[in-house]
Amino acid sequence: QVQLVQSGGGLVQTGGSLRLSCAVSGRRYSDYTMGWFRQAPGKEREFVAQLARDGSMWYQDFVGDRFIISGDSARYTLSLQMNSLKPEDTTLYYCAKSSSSNSVRYDWWGQGTQVTVSS
Description:
single chain; mainly beta; four-stranded antiparallel β-sheet; globular
């Protein structure tokens, strides 16, 4: 019922920038928390960034000051601006949306988009 469609990503050289976008369709669960995750082959999916209902933001430590998460107030769209990219950032990135207003439950996921950083 809820669909998340991602766009952006691609190939960039070390130090370059990319912007990922995510749009929610279907039942949109207005303002529920959304986030970005990434998963490399053979590794567990890891948290990247989160935009909560109140607008607060959290980032994983590896992000440093390189990535910025943003979205509209209703959480129908979500973006991840990625700067100063490194080869180790190469992987699939996923947007996700919580299906609960009382807790963060990432039950809705995008299809994934590839980010490749060449060295």
